[in-house]
Amino acid sequence: MKKLxxxxxxxxxMAVGCTHKSQQKNNLGDDSSSVSHATLQEFExxxxxxxxxxxxxxxxxxxxxxxxxxxxxxxxxxPNLKFVIEGHCDKRGTIEYNLALGERxxxxxxxxxxxxxxNPDRVTVISFxxxxxxxxxxxxxxxxxxxxxxxxxR
Length: 154
Prior knowledge:
This protein is of the alpha+beta class. It has two domains: 1-30; 32-153, CATH 3.30.1330.60. It is 53% helix and 14% strand. It has helices at residues 3-27, 37-48, 62-77, 95-115, 140-146, and strands at 50-52, 83-88, 123-129, 148-153. The longest helix has 25 residues, at 3-27. The relative contact order is 0.16. It is a lipid-anchor. Its main location: membrane.
């Protein structure tokens, strides 16, 4: 009978210890869980997580630079966050060509962010080529929405 209360106490202490450690990790600011859902929404809607590219191009338009300028401000406001820039293409072209183009697009965004004061260690790039379209279809409107770079908080 004496073992049961001791076992209950040990389980309770272990649960409190695990919860405390989990809360400490979340408050360190070393991952996106330290950012509120509202802040993540702000990044996507007010700052802008997407920039768009012209056909067969990785050059940044004025609109893309304006969005990236807002991203720079956000990144400076949250210096502990890390980001991934995803490069995407429309479905025209080969898989290999679009993977390379998506990488060039993501890298042009990263270079712009770094030139404007973001630590390059905070930003990684990945290309999905034409494998993850935002919009299905064979229209110029669909193609234009798929030629994009998306910045994601890691």
